[in-house]
Design goal:
homodimer, 434 residues, alpha/beta, Rossmann fold, Dihydrodipicolinate Reductase, domain 2, Alpha-Beta Plaits, 11-stranded mixed beta sheet, 6-stranded parallel beta sheet, 37% helix
């Protein structure tokens, strides 16, 4: 056996991901040493409660409640505690004491990324976070390295497994949101408080991370437009299916080439995509990131977006990279925010829309609706009129638009709602993926 | 504008990919400098004929026929000539003169990879080859870095665009191989001599590269079992569709856990995969690499497998990585072949099979066929008997097997062929992807 240099690895957190990372570090120690060029010695695991139940069996003497002492003297610190504090303080302590950091903490990076990356730059350390954007799917290295010579135009990501599981079952079974959510909670696909997932907060954090990386721009979390999926009911899903679409919660990061120079848009919302789009066949709790680049064309990265052992794979890949860098020497590649493009508000974004209305079934109504759309600079691409269920005097209009400005669209929908001929705005959904 | 250090970049070859690389290096010079932390100065392009027509306009003074002088003094050498010699000699010269090398040359790496990687290790240089395995699809970094802490169990790749284009059209249109091939040649999807693609030589080179990387094992090209798609006709394609399969040319790299320790298998052949497998929805000339890893689970990487500008994206990503390494300092990460697992012959591989036979439609024939299969240790999973077209005294048997050893299967098929009751072995196809 090769006599490798030892690197001291400190682990913060022993939850679903952390306990798997610890187990794999120990099980595959010899193989990891060959890959990394160094023995990765797990010197301790900082937790709040040493006696808590863990997913895997680990020697009790590895555990400590004293994270700060553990970090001192570590070569690599793996932060898997989640949350902002004390994770932020520990990550900064690790960087300043000369360690490289591996983290899966999307909340931390989406809110304090610039502070952390600046601190790493100051001392030539590196922060690895492959597991923070799409779980086990390798997306950080492709964006940062493989596409470094290209220009990313758009990213469309299914980056939240819980919402994809719910929407996929609603689509496949014609079920209602609430029923599927309860089932997803029972099966462990959704938390007892599902807000972070179903309201799009988790996806928004990942969108901020992906957009920062793809566009070399600092993207604060509050610049990400966010809508969840709680408004998607069975009838909306059925109508989407009927029109050849499927509804997915998408994180869209887009480069806009306007008259006044380049800008970007970062947004999370449920959107219609055509059934033959590669993202439409992402089922269950799987994730996928679809990337459109100027030269490379369309790329897609698909896999498990969550799960303890799956995410542990991404974390360990980062640990091996950090170890190789320790052995090879040299300073880290900093996060580049040299482009720092302006981020536009959602009102300045153009997409296609599908508007579903219930209108009075009377002569002249269609002309009124068409007139309001036209006055609002929203151009009709497709139109379907059907009777709305039981009520014979109510018609349902499904209007597909050409590309329109979000601000124009939303003002137009307001005018439709108060026009006197529209009984109800059933839904307004964006169409993505063309 | 930041005052960056200059790095001298030499380009060998100005074909479809090379001319796009040159154009992008010049067009995006400022952006690339920000990303790389260095100005990437294209100092020359070595070609055989300075006056040849190029895909893009480039200054005549960049061209030279003297590759050796160009390489001297270059910091980064991009080899896009293709073929073995003189590409091999130039790459070795570049490494030995202190340059990092970027290459898209799959033939060179599949035949002389160990020599080239050893030479790079000796001097601490690095060889980048993202574009050699699946065109624009980032697969090298994910395998080498992102999955470095995991254990790859199997790779199934659609890594040849020409054959996927042909098979996809045969599937969609019910067309014959020969007709689609002629059309593919007319449209530029196939070469006038299509042998390298349709006989699987190109896919075999890529399989060798992917397997080397995934299993940390030197995989010589002649250890790759290779079959092409010229034997796939309309009736085979129709039968596959009828049975819920699609036929794809797959590069399969598999880790085998046998009684006598681990080994690997690397093979290229047309195989049946179920229509709901993610690889089944890879259409046209697109490529995709499906990876099964112990911890990460199933991953898929999808995109353009060829094309000048698409492949140029992958090359430029490598150039930026090489430049960052020059700036950061430190030695390169060598190619690890520390595992060097034994590579088994095709006969030792187990898969499922689908065997299509034309047999005499007489009492006792099915018992004879079943007996031969059972004697040969091939277990029947599914069986369908139909009349074979016009001839009333001939029946068609489609037999799906459980997993069987290739050697057992091929001996059994030979015995079936000479059993006296089998008129014709119509096809024998492996089933992959379960």
């Amino acid at each position: 056996m090769t006599d490798y240099r030892r690197l001291r690895v400190a682990l913060l957190g022993a939850g679903a991901v952390g306990s798997q990372v610890a187990a794999l570090l120990r099980q595959h120690a010899d193989e990891l040493a060959d890959r990394a060029g160094a023995r990765l010695e797990l010197v301790g695991i900082a937790v709040r409660d040493i006696d808590a139940t863990r997913d895997v069996d680990l020697p009790r003497e590895l555990f400590t409640t004293d994270a700060e002492s553990l970090i001192l003297g570590a070569d690599i610190v793996i932060e898997l505690m989640g949350g902002i504090e004390p994770a932020r303080a520990y990550v900064l302590q690790a960087i300043n004491s000369g360690a490289d950091v591996v983290t899966a903490n999307k909340a931390l990076l989406a809110t304090h990324g610039p502070e952390i990356f600046d601190a790493a730059d100051q001392v030539g350390a590196e922060v690895y976070y492959e597991a923070a954007a799409a779980g086990a799917i390798p997306i950080i290295r492709p964006l940062r390295d493989s596409l470094a010579g290209d220009r990313v135009q758009r990213i469309m990501g299914i980056v939240n497994g819980t919402t994809n599981y719910i929407l996929d079952r609603m689509d496949a079974e014609g079920a209602e949101f609430g029923d599927v959510l309860v089932d997803a909670q029972r099966l462990g696909y959704a938390e007892s408080d599902p807000t972070a997932d179903v309201e799009g907060y988790d996806a928004a954090q990942k969108a901020a991370i992906l957009a920062s990386l793809a566009f070399h721009t600092t993207v604060p979390l509050d610049a990400v437009h966010r809508e969840g999926i709680t408004g998607i009911d069975k009838s909306t899903m059925d109508a989407a299916r009927h029109a050849g679409y499927v509804i997915k919660l998408l994180a869209v990061c887009e480069r806009l080439d306007g008259g006044s120079g380049e800008s970007i848009s970062v947004r999370v919302y449920p959107a219609l995509i055509e059934r033959d789009h590669p993202l439409a066949s992402v089922h269950g709790a799987n994730n996928a990131v679809f990337v459109q680049a100027e030269a490379a064309g369309n790329l897609m990265f698909y896999g498990a977006g969550a799960g303890g052992v799956q995410t542990a794979s991404a974390v360990l890949g980062d640990v091996v990279s950090a170890a190789r860098r320790h052995i090879a020497g040299g300073v880290g590649v900093g996060e580049s925010t040299l482009a720092n493009l302006p981020i536009v508000a959602i009102g300045r974004v153009t997409t296609r829309y599908q508007i579903t209305l219930e209108v009075d079934d009377q002569p002249g109504v269609l002309a009124t609706v068409a007139g309001i759309l036209s006055d609002g600079r929203v151009s009709i691409a497709t139109l379907e009129q059907t009777v709305a269920g039981e009520e014979a005097n109510i018609a349902r209009l499904v209007i597909g638009t050409h590309k329109a400005l979000e601000q124009d669209l939303s003002e137009t929908v307001s005018r439709l709602a108060t026009s006197g001929v529209v009984e109800r705005v059933v839904s307004v959904l964006r169409v993505e993926g063309e």
